[in-house]
DNA sequence: ATGATTTGACCCTT
DNA sequence: AAGGGTCAAATCAT
């Protein structure tokens, strides 16, 4: 039903989505660069702030247009209702929707933590593939209607890495989806912003699996680089996740036997309910948020 | 008790 | 018809 008009808006929407993806990648690179430069000179950091500010503005502007189109197509997403009787004799109603979002590209990564919270909704053996594919959707789908999804599969050539394909845009208030840290260039506040960083390693030693899960930012995921530094924006990711999450914060496909799933299922990657420790981080940032360090565009 | 994951079935696309 | 994506009951974990 939406096929005819979707054909009409498909091209602009796709171009906008591609532009958003590109901008997101540029922004993440810029944030990383900012972190590096911040150690060198505050002048560079100022410049990077300006760049990030513009990028965030552009993303916000694009996002409103895109999400409007996406939600319009998502609402009438060819949802088909059907009744079926399972083999056990149960009668169940089913609503079925098909993905229309474009893939934002396949990434090879060594971690599944990308700053967002995912909920697994399926796993499937794939033809000509030794490893199953796992299907995740944003955990904020129910409460915020976020339609972001991802597919995760063990990399064929490098079994210790994952091939992750993302679909859709995060419309939830997840930290990596929001314009990050728009800091007025006054040194005090900027210092204040990162001043809590040294406290984090105490809480989450960077060498543990737990902290690598918590502290991995999107660029770590996307680049597969193993740079160990922890930047303020990464902390923002943690805080944002913690603040929004009431239960499980991470999930990994069940690749039992591969050894990779064990790390998550053993409890280091999946830190289901530790609200007290999360509360510490959130609490320590409460004043910062109140101070408008983190701008969440409505 | 609640929420996440597993898993078989269902349905769409090719 | 096959393959792949999603649903949802059952199961598991906390």
Automatic annotation (TrEMBL):
Residues 81-105 are annotated as: Disordered. GO terms for molecular function: DNA-binding transcription factor activity; transcription cis-regulatory region binding. Its main location: nucleus. It is found in: Nucleus. PROSITE patterns: WRKY. Signal peptide: none annotated. Keywords: DNA-binding, Nucleus, Transcription, Transcription regulation. One of its GO terms (biological process) is regulation of DNA-templated transcription. Residues 107-175 form the WRKY domain. It comes from the Eukaryota. GO terms for cellular component: nucleus. The keyword Iron does not apply. This is WRKY domain-containing protein. The lineage of its organism: Eukaryota, Viridiplantae, Streptophyta, Embryophyta, Tracheophyta. The gene is LOC123446507.
């Amino acid at each position: 039903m939406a096929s005819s008009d979707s054909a009409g808006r498909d091209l602009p929407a796709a171009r906008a989505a591609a532009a958003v993806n590109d901008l997101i990648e540029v922004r993440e690179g810029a944030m990383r660069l900012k972190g590096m430069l911040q150690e060198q000179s505050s002048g560079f950091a100022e410049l990077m702030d300006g760049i990030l500010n513009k990028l965030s503005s552009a993303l916000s502007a694009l996002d409103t247009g895109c999400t409007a189109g996406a939600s319009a197509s998502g609402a009438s997403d060819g949802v088909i209702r059907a009744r079926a009787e399972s083999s056990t004799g149960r009668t169940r109603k089913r609503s079925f929707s098909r993905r229309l979002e474009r893939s934002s590209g396949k990434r090879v990564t060594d971690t599944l933590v990308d700053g967002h919270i995912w909920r697994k909704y399926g796993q499937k053996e794939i033809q000509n593939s030794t490893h199953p594919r796992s299907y995740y959707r944003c955990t904020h789908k129910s409460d915020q209607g976020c339609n972001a999804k991802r597919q995760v599969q063990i990399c064929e050539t490098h079994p210790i890495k994952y091939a992750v394909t993302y679909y859709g845009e995060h419309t939830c208030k997840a930290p990596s989806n929001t314009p990050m840290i728009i800091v007025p260039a006054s040194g005090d506040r900027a210092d204040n912003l990162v001043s809590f960083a040294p406290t984090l390693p105490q809480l989450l030693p960077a060498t543990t699996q737990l902290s690598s899960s918590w502290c991995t930012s999107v660029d770590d995921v996307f680049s597969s680089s193993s740079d160990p530094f922890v930047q303020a924006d990464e902390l923002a990711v943690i805080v944002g996740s913690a603040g929004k999450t009431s239960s499980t914060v991470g999930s990994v496909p069940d690749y039992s036997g591969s050894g990779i799933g064990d790390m998550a299922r053993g409890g280091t990657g999946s830190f289901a309910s530790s609200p007290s420790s999360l509360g510490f981080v959130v609490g320590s940032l409460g004043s910062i948020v109140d101070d408008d360090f983190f701008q969440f565009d409505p």
